[in-house]
Amino acid sequence: MSDIPADPRPIVLTGDRPTGPLHLGHFCGSLRNRVTLQHGHDTFVPIADAQALTDNTDDPRRITRHVIDLALDDLAVGIDPSLTTICVQSALPALCELTQLFLNLVTVVRLERNPTIKEEIQARGFGRDIPAGFLCYPVAQAADSAAFRATLVPVGADQAPMIEQTHAIVRRLNRQVGHALLPEARASIPASGRLPGVDGRAKMSKSQGNALALSATEDEIRAAVRRMDTDPDHLRVGDPGRVEGNVVFTDPDAFDPDRDTIAELKARYRRGGLGDTVVKQRLETVLLDLLAPIRASRAAWAHRPDDVRDILRDGTRHARGVTQATLDTVKDALGLYRLAP
Ligand code: TRP
Question: Of 175, 251, 265, 266, which residue is 20 to 30 A from 95 by alpha carbon distance?
Fold first, then answer.
């Protein structure tokens, strides 16, 4: 029996689907958090290409094309490959094996109750034709966290049901084997909440076409700000305006380092006397300043494709060892047949 030593430091893990460029919503919900957490934690960032296939079945190559783009986005925001293991999910067979074992620890009814899954089934128009892999992806995601022995998962609020599902599975396994074999990962969800889309809708999402990519050009940033809806009742500059739920203020709340100026602008807007144009100009500057260094770093990494490929290869190699070790421990604890050496 391989015995796992007590973890000396917490392990951070979070993945992303390579379905398109990462955007401000990802940055606010998770990326920013993981860049901070990588100092002082072992950090793993799987590129969840296998998970992305669960609702992109018809075009796997499209997912593959986005793998490098996603790695570039990660590196551009400051994920440091000497601190964080960036790896490719589909190249980690232990995750599939663990998923298979985990599938027996959850019921179909429980999977169907997952609110995020319900929302996504609606959004994708699956009706009754839900791919089984899609319904079960929270189980595979539980395997991601468990295989890396994650204790902290920095995610946006929409991922909370996935963490709960992970807890349920891990708890059930631990109960079955009679000791705390795998850790129960805690979610780290930013207090700022979910970032609305540039159209003001509740969630910034690529599939809803209301996202601003981290790799956006200056012109794209300006165009997005120009298009943003503000308070529809704020018709004249002198009218009092609504700040709550108004995207031109929620974005500065999330990204403007100058809190005092933002508080002052909000107060003036509420009172009346502050035009949308002024607020938008400020927002444009904030977003241009935020994204300029990210864009520059991304361009620099894009010029070093061999280095990026090496980072993925080395990271995945390391991740293979870690995930296989966990799988072996789980199989042993469950008492699966072991071939003689
Ligand atoms: N489901 C996550 C998303 O859609 C991606 C993901 C895959 C993930 N594996 C994970 C997140 C493990 C946290 C932990 O963005």
Answer: 175
End-to-end CA distance of the chain: 13
DSSP sequence for 277-294: HHHHHHHHHHHHHHHHHH
DSSP state of 3: P
Q: In CATH terms, are 11-195+304-334 and 218-298 the same topology?
A: no
What pLDDT, on a 0 to 100 scale, did the predictor assign at position 199?
Answer: 84
Q: Which CATH superfamily is domain 218-298 in?
A: Tyrosyl-Transfer RNA Synthetase (1.10.240.10)
User: How far apart are the CA of 165 and the centre of ligand 1, in A?
Assistant: 13
Report the nearest-CA residue for atom 14 of ligand 1: 14
pLDDT of residue 1: 44
Q: By the 8 A CB rule, do 152 and 10 touch?
A: yes
The residue nearest atom 13 of ligand 1, judged by CA position, is: 14
> Does ligand 1 have an atom closer than 6 angstroms to the CB of 141?
yes
C-alpha closest to that of 316 among 26, 50, 130: 50
Nearest CA to ligand 1 atom 7: 15
- Domain limits of the chain? 11-195+304-334, 218-298
| Site of tokens 């349920």 | 168
Structure tokens that stand for 264 in this block: 């002052």
pLDDT of residue 8: 56
Neighbouring CB atoms inside 10 A of 288's CB total 15
For residue 208, the model assigns a pLDDT of 81
116 in Cβ contact with 161 (< 8 Å): yes
Model's pTM, two decimal places? 0.92
The CATH code of the domain at 11-195+304-334 is 3.40.50.620
Token match 């008492």: residue? 335
Do residues 177 and 334 make contact, with C-beta atoms less than 8 angstroms apart? Answer: yes
The pLDDT value given to residue 6: 52
CA angle 59, 155, 214 (to 5 degrees): 65
